[in-house]
């Protein structure tokens, strides 16, 4: 019982951490609070729907391709010309990108919500140490945990990661020390594309459907997690996302049923409180880079 | 003569703007049913965007949450004007402490005022947050307020009917009512802009720290502007409910927010003229696009739903890239012949220095 809950909570935490990093990375490097993030997730989820008859790993690969392509195209068309704009302008622009991608999806491929039949192997249940766990929860946990490890390795051990972190710390200083904007910014978008594709694939498996507006909820989760954890540091953001996911799992099993509908209201009130009291985030000691 | 000129210079911008609004109202009154509907809703948008501009235009802080004030105004109007017998069937499960909601009733003008006041109270409650935050944080916080409002309206089914539509509101708003409120909103916004508080707030928009250092209580003025703009946006919500006679909670969410943000950004969010011009222009654009999407220009070939949204989003992106301060920048509409040489040059250079605000934080 406890182990089941733990695997569920940790899995949700890992998923939320993944979503949060996607928001925090672009915010750190570009100052972009990316509301089009949900539509990247949508692109990945749509690939899962399109290739639902193919083997799951292949569909996952295609999801990554779709999301990365959409991320790079949106960077090229919308955010590249706005590179020196202030954060609020960028935020409005990402609103526009989000709406544009959503209406594109609605016009062409997703006029209404589509069901995605669950993968057979995901709905199995296995018993580990006496606990009855669904494979879906395990896959969520393993996939998201693995991605987090990869991101941690990429950011910590590779030259690209160091450049990205330097750019997130102080973009102008980094670029005067030879970090190329035309390398790190698209690289950040590629990473965000991969992260959102994995997030999208997991979300599709959990919800069993794909709709044009499915990106909103995960995008908001990413934003809340990033603000809670402190937007300038990826570690803080990941931890914020993880705690948010674990807290959500906890709230869902603890809140009385007639209050569960108001979960979001509690969550966003907490967000406002954090913004007012500790704008640098709950977990970050650093100064936050705002406008 | 000199005094007369000065008076003219002071009132010309609001006069021109009221004239523009009057033009829209006349188009609505003389046109057919569809035109009247478009024109009236455009006037409601003018009220809303002018309200938004009272806060955003003067403080330079963008708000994504103002639609919640519109919702407050609309729901208040619904509670006050839906006939009592109908209301008793619509809200049969009201919790005890709110049962008086089913009994109250008033005429539309009273409901309009009440809608504005309720929104102002919501503004008063949220003002401390806005007073403390700047830039992006304020953007996120105001968006969070909208999400909270939406969540509560959507989930508190016994009181707000949740995701079912609010129906049976008597048609109170006419095109002339909408015009009257829009004109009043323009005048109030202009008066605030020229007031001591408005001037100090605009100073803080140009340079936050310099304004602080000069002893301006930026937070207090932001809060003042926030409450005033909440009041105006509440009026817009009341007009909206009184015109459509039914509405749904989804009308007060991100789609509406986005469409108003397009209006204010396209017009230029630092100027009151920009707000009015943007609201009217985007309303017209949306109607043209709607007809385009329905196939009225392409010989009956319907285009897939979403084309209009896509084009609006593309227009917004182009405006953000090419003219981040919109059509008007920081300028206001003026009569051309009043800018005589001496005065005109001084003003023009003042405009030039103010054209690129140092920061919008």
Automatic annotation (TrEMBL), chain A:
CDD domains xrefs: TM_PBP1_LivH_like
A Pfam family that the UniProt record links to this protein: BPD_transp_2
GO cellular component: plasma membrane
Name of the featured protein: High-affinity branched-chain amino acid transport system permease protein LivH
Domain of life: Bacteria
Bilayer topology annotation: Multi-pass membrane protein
PANTHER family: BRANCHED-CHAIN AMINO ACID TRANSPORT SYSTEM PERMEASE PROTEIN LIVH, HIGH-AFFINITY BRANCHED-CHAIN AMINO ACID TRANSPORT SYSTEM PERMEASE PROTEIN LIVH
Keywords for the protein's UniProt record, in alphabetical order: Amino-acid transport, Cell inner membrane, Cell membrane, Membrane, Transmembrane, Transmembrane helix, Transport
Similarity section: Belongs to the binding-protein-dependent transport system permease family. LivHM subfamily.
GO MF term list: L-isoleucine transmembrane transporter activity; L-leucine transmembrane transporter activity; L-phenylalanine transmembrane transporter activity; L-valine transmembrane transporter activity
Biological process, per Gene Ontology: D-alanine transmembrane transport; L-alanine transport; L-isoleucine import across plasma membrane
Subcellular compartments: Cell membrane
Automatic annotation (TrEMBL), chain B:
Bilayer topology term: Multi-pass membrane protein
Transmembrane is among the record's keywords: yes
Compartment annotation: Cell membrane
GO cellular component terms, semicolon-separated: plasma membrane
Pfam families from the UniProt entry: BPD_transp_2 (PF02653)
Primary site of residence: membrane
Example GO molecular function: branched-chain amino acid transmembrane transporter activity
UniProt keywords, alphabetically: Cell membrane, Membrane, Transmembrane, Transmembrane helix
InterPro entries: ABC_transp_permease, LivM-like
Lineage: superkingdom: Bacteria
Protein known as: Branched-chain amino acid transport system permease protein LivM
